[in-house]
Automatic annotation (TrEMBL):
This is Glycosyltransferase. Residues 246-387 form the Erythromycin biosynthesis protein CIII-like C-terminal domain. It comes from Piscinibacter gummiphilus. Residues 94-156 form the Erythromycin biosynthesis protein CIII-like N-terminal domain. Belongs to the glycosyltransferase 28 family. PANTHER family: STEROL 3-BETA-GLUCOSYLTRANSFERASE, STEROL 3-BETA-GLUCOSYLTRANSFERASE UGT80A2. Pfam families: EryCIII-like_C, EryCIII-like_N. Signal peptide: none annotated. Keywords: Glycosyltransferase, Transferase.
Length: 409
């Protein structure tokens, strides 16, 4: 079996596909990657596979988006995703991914194409090539109306290549949807007709244990009596002023803190730091989390699900995009707290951290969530199901679905 994986350039979208890509490769199948040039430096560092340059990079896509719709550069808060997603992923990224993705499919000749659910060019390119495809979520399932708005921007390509308008879901769910959202964080149930199968978002047991002193300075690792807090604002919107506010809120508390500043913030910008705080651009999250007692983050799906897989209470400070719905679900599950907008101040952050560390209910709920994630099908189990489907023609069994909850508007 030959499988072509494809993602849009955001690191969270790329990382979401890596466990399944590695599992398919480990089972002896041919695997290739299709994505922006910047992703081709990232993916091969995890697994050396053939790469095809497909679509614009993140900065190029943003430049095109704001050049065409300058008013979107000021979009902030909970409505930003609703305004930006259709144009960014439909008009800008999908339209420029389509032709090079078709060329990659022609060159690699896959038996299956797997894309994440913002890669709207995948269903069209796969259908034209007559190849089955799978859509994997990078977080929560996308609202149907947002997908429809994005697909409208590439409707002309559907008509040109197929002679028909696109389906309302852009073909994303024509064959199979792999849902990495844990049941307790699942919003309203997916449509009954959607062929969905769960996939464990992260495998907490997959990373070999690493001693803490290999990850942080020795004196910090030695202070085992102090709870360890991991602080990250992800890779897309690292604001040094918010990082400083969080660190000021934690100052004077009996804690150790490891800060991932991200690609846009130099650790030196946070100086001076006390000896109980260590900052670096990139932190090996999967290796650090087993040592932590609390996670403070932006609420990106990757960080939320990884912390949940380790049974860690979380404080979320959402900044953009799907972070608001991710964190609303987290708070609804009682595994964490969320601070929005003006609430992201020194006093509110300090109080929230004190609550999360002192009230056992948060840890107990987070541990139940970790157990739930551990029961989801692993990447290897899903890879086996895909084998049987593609090689033997057996349908992928679709397990029953748990009812979700309604997210706030």
């Amino acid at each position: 079996m030959r499988v072509l994986f494809c993602a849009t350039p955001g690191e969270g979208h790329v990382r979401a596909l890596l466990p399944l890509l590695q599992a398919v490769h480990a089972r002896g199948h041919g695997v290739a990657w299709a994505g922006a040039a910047e992703t081709q430096a990232f993916v091969p560092s995890h697994l050396p596979v053939p790469c095809f340059e497909v679509g614009p990079g993140w900065q190029s896509a943003r430049f095109r988006l704001f050049g065409r719709w300058p008013e979107l550069s000021a979009a902030r808060g909970t409505d930003a995703a609703a305004r930006i997603f259709p144009k960014l992923y439909g008009a800008v990224i999908a339209a420029r991914m389509l032709a090079p993705l078709q060329a990659a499919i022609h060159a690699f000749k896959p038996d299956l194409v797997i894309g994440e659910n913002a890669a709207l060019a995948v269903p069209l390119a796969a259908q034209v090539a007559g190849v089955p495809h799978v859509t994997q979520g990078f977080g929560m399932p996308l609202p149907a109306h947002r997908v429809q708005e994005a697909v409208a921007h590439i409707a002309s390509h559907w008509v040109r290549l197929t002679g028909a308008p696109p389906p309302s879901d852009g073909g994303l769910y024509r064959h199979l949807y792999l849902d990495i959202c844990p049941p307790s964080l699942q919003p309203e149930p997916l449509p009954a007709e959607l062929p969905a199968h769960s996939l464990q978002p992260v495998d907490a047991a997959a990373t070999a244990p690493v001693e803490l002193q290999r990850l942080v300075p020795g004196p910090l690792a030695a202070q085992r009596e102090l709870p360890l807090v991991y602080l990250s604002l992800g890779t897309m919107l690292n604001r040094p002023e918010l990082l400083r506010t969080v660190l000021a809120a934690l100052s004077g508390m009996a804690l150790r803190v490891v800060v991932a500043t991200g690609p846009d913030v130099e650790p030196e910008q946070l100086q001076p730091l006390p000896p109980t705080v260590h900052a670096q651009r990139h932190v090996p999250q999967a290796e650090l989390l087993p040592h932590c007692q609390l996670v403070i983050s932006h609420g990106g799906a990757g960080t939320v699900y990884a912390a949940a897989a380790h049974g860690l209470p979380q404080l979320a400070l959402p900044q953009m995009a799907d972070q608001f719905v991710n964190t609303a679900a987290l708070e609804h599950s009682n595994a964490g707290l969320v601070l929005l907008g003006a609430e992201q101040n020194l006093y509110a952050i300090r109080h929230a951290v004190q609550q999360l560390l002192s009230e056992p209910r948060f840890r107990h709920t987070a541990e139940r969530l970790a157990h739930e994630i551990a029961q989801m099908p692993s990447a290897d189990e899903v890879a086996q199901q895909l084998e049987r489907w593609i090689e033997q023609g057996q349908p992928v069994p679709l397990p029953p679905r748990r009812s979700g909850f309604k997210l706030p508007a």
